Structure formats: structure tokens, C-alpha cells
Amino acid sequence: MFIHIGIDDTDSPNGMCTTYLGALLYRELSRIAEPLDLPRLIRLNPNIPYKTRGNGAVAMSFGADETVIPQIKDTVLFYVSQLADLEHENTNPGVVFLEGKIPNELREFSLKALGEHVTIREAERTAREVGAEYFKFKLGRGIIGSLAAIGYPLERFTYELLAYREPENWGTPRRVKEESVFLADKWTYPFSHDNVDPHKRIVLITPHGKDPVLAGIRGIDHGRVLQVFERVEFEEPVAFYQLYKTNQNTDDHLTPKKIGELRLYDSAVVRGKVAGPYWEHGRHVFFELEDETGRIRVAAFEPTKKFRNYVRKLLPGDEIIAAGGVKEHGGVLTLNLEKFYPVKLVPKVEYRKPKCPKCGGTMKSKGDYLKCKRCGYKMPRELVPVKVPRDLEKKIYEVPPDARKHLSRPLVLPGGEEKILELL
Ligand code: ATP
């Protein structure tokens, strides 16, 4: 028979990682049951507030003899109870087991957990309806992610290889020879992506927290992902590693919506007109976008760095397609920009001094009149409108890799433009 296992909410900023637990369990359970595929790392709604980092949950499926099912369940529950960071108040693990086929109803629940906010009660109700068994530790909020990870229709996917550290190194700086990452990336890009940021010259595969992850290597081709792992020179021991199949970098979270339909925690693509000039607050850049159904504040936050320069070039009246997550910022519903595409740009007009009508020389302002620098001709100070080129191209602009959401598809990958261009 088939058994599907979902685990979530085992970590805290003080340590642990659900993928680490998942990798240990996958290895342990593969001794007594047949894995149907790689374990799955499913990222859910990136805008919900309870997440530790990237709102990831783990699921795995096995073909197993009925007699070993109790052993499988005991092993999972034992590992979670021993390794989850139960001390932390925001860690509320949940484990779900589902036997047999994955019902359609569960797929719908998964898609809801990806795009909206769902409650623990809803998860419990769905689990009962589909005949899934769930175990809650403390509040047990993790059953939301666990159930959603099991039911997730992973039609588009990428890979992530996660390498883990020896426990004695947890909490210390990660030791990796940086140059080897740049070299490995050069060999495999774009089949493996986001290993480095070539502009900032920084390595991206190593996280910075106290968790057990040494490095995460992503890609659309699992062979190349493994190649990167082999070529990177780690200067500390790798405890073990696991390749995951994942919905990261698929843009699965983006749903086309009208501005008036946007709700807190949505991830959406909208088309609208820039409603006024941009403004800045604390290095964040904001503007308002409207369509026939409503208006929303849009933000390019400080960590998006140079991306903000493109946002600053937008003018009132420009028509754009914008993708991002809806969050509350300073009490106002705000679309946190991930990508945008200028559809139609208004002409940019600047008022300049005319050339001298007599000799063609340059005019100089002298109070309320203009005077030619060459021939001295004087005339009233009347400026002329001049159309200047808009230096925004007809292309999609995206935030830099270290500010990108796990689910967001980089433009370098095939299909990175799809969700935006659907609204053209
Ligand atoms: P990591 O990325 O290291 O695994 P995390 O960012 O995944 O950490 P969690 O500790 O898993 O953070 O916390 C996310 C919590 O939010 C989980 O309890 C999960 O069940 C819950 N959750 C996931 N999706 C939704 C949703 N759509 N609505 C409400 N709660 C959700």
C-alpha cells in the first residue's frame, strides 16, 4: 500500500530545519519501505506571518507492506518529538499520514494553502474528510503545511540539494571555499541557478542561521545540481545530503487578479496604471497602482537594492503588469513587488530653454527672461516642452536573487516570464 507523510513547523530561528528531519526520515524509512520518488520540499504561502524563513513543508511517499505501517508512523513521530525545537513558542509541529491515493479535495486544500491563509481548524476538517491521520505538537499549526505538502500537485518542479552540517558546527560560520562555488556555477549555469550573485560577488548557497543546513544547491537539472555539489570545496565536514524535488522557482504562487480582489497574504499578478508619483520612506520605494476595480500601494523594499531604480523610473499613467505578495505595511495593504513589466509608457516631457531664435546659441536664465550667451539676444523666459526617451525597456524587471521569494521563478529559467505575460 501507499503511505504519504507530511511534516512541518519543526524549526525556529534558534535551530533545526524541517528538511533536515525529512532527510533523516527519508533515509531511515527507505530501509523498511520503498520510496515512490524523492522527498518533496513544498513552499507554501510566502506572505503568512508564522513562517520561520521560507514557509517550507516536507512530504514523502512510500510503497509499504501493511505490517510496517505502524513502524513507519512510530519512527516519524519519534524523530519529530526528539528533534523539533519544541521549546520555541512559535514552533508548533504537525505530522500527517495519508494512506492510499491522494484525493482531489486535498489538492484543492494545497492550492489554497499556497495562495491564501488557512486555519488549523480547516486543516483538521480537511484531514478528517480525506481520511488522513494527524498529530499535533503544541498548537499543531504544522498540520496545515504537512497536509498541503502531501496533496500538492507538483506538476512543475525544480530540485534542491541540501547538504547538512555536523551538529558540533551548528551555530558557527559556514566554511566553504568561495571561489569553488563561482567556478562550479560557471560550469553549470543556468541548469543550476542562484549559487552566486555575480554582481555583488557573493555566494548564495550557504544560509546564515543556526540551522543544520550547510548549503542548498538549486537547479532544473538534478545531474547538474549534483555536479555543483561535487565541485564545491567545503572546508568543514558534510554530515550527509539529500536531493529534494520542490515547487521552488515555479511561480506557482502567482494568481492573476484584479486589484479590487487583492486580500491580505495573497500572491498575485495584476495589471494597472501607476496612479501618482513614487515616494520614498526609509529607503523603501512606494507608488500606487490602480485598475477599474480599485487601487493598491506597491512597494519595492530596501533589500531589493538596484531594482528600486527601475521602479523610480515609472511615471503616473504608465501601464504595468506587477507580480508580488500582499502584506500589511504600516497598516496599509501593500503589494510587495517581485517582478514588473512595463506594458505602455506615457511620454516623458521635460521643459527646457529654447535655442536662441536669432543665432541658435545657448540661452541663459536671467530672472524672468532668457539671454543668448553668444549674441546677447533677450526674450521672455518661456520654456519649451521636449519629449525625452524613457529609459525603461519592454522587458520584465525582477528583484535580485537574495531578495527573491523561494517560489518566484527567475527570468533566466524557461517560463520565468509566463505568469506575467499571461496578462498581456
Ligand atoms: P523553514 O523554511 O526553515 O522550513 P518555515 O519558514 O517553513 O521554516 P514553519 O516553521 O514551517 O516556517 O512555519 C510555517 C507555519 O505556517 C507552519 O505551521 C505551517 O503549517 C503554517 N502555514 C503554512 N501555510 C499556511 C497558510 N496558507 N495559512 C496559514 N498557515 C500556514
Descriptive key words:
single chain; 424 residues; alpha+beta; Alpha-Beta Plaits; Glycinamide Ribonucleotide Synthetase, Chain A, domain 4; OB fold (Dihydrolipoamide Acetyltransferase, E2P); 4 domains; ten-stranded mixed β-sheet; 21% helix; elongated; binds adenosine-5'-triphosphate
Describe the structure.
With 424 residues, the protein is of the alpha+beta class. It has four domains: 2-151, Alpha-Beta Plaits (2-Layer Sandwich), CATH 3.30.70.2200; 158-246, Glycinamide Ribonucleotide Synthetase, Chain A, domain 4, CATH 3.90.600.20; 255-345 and 390-421, OB fold (Dihydrolipoamide Acetyltransferase, E2P) (Beta Barrel), CATH 2.40.50.1010; 353-385. The chain has nine helices and 25 strands. It has helices at 18-29, 69-83, 104-115, 120-130, 142-151, 178-188, 222-231, 307-312, 418-421, and strands at residues 2-8, 34-35, 40-43, 56-63, 94-99, 133-136, 158-165, 192-193, 196-197, 202-203, 213-219, 238-246, 255-256, 267-274, 279-281, 284-291, 294-300, 319-329, 332-344, 348-352, 363-366, 369-372, 378-380, 384-388, 397-398. Strands 1, 2, 3, 4, 5, 6, 7, 8, 11 and 12 form a ten-stranded mixed sheet that branches. The protein has a five-stranded mixed β-barrel with strand order 14-16-17-19-18. A hairpin with a 5-residue loop joins strand 22 (369-372) and strand 23. Helix 1 (18-29) runs antiparallel to helix 2 (69-83), helix 3 packs across helix 5 and helix 6 (178-188) packs antiparallel against helix 7 (222-231). The protein is elongated. The two termini are 46 Å apart. The model has no long low-confidence stretch (mean pLDDT 96). Adenosine-5'-triphosphate (ATP) binds at residues 8-9, 11, 17-18, 44-45, 48, 50-56, 92, 113, 116-118, 141-142, 144-145.
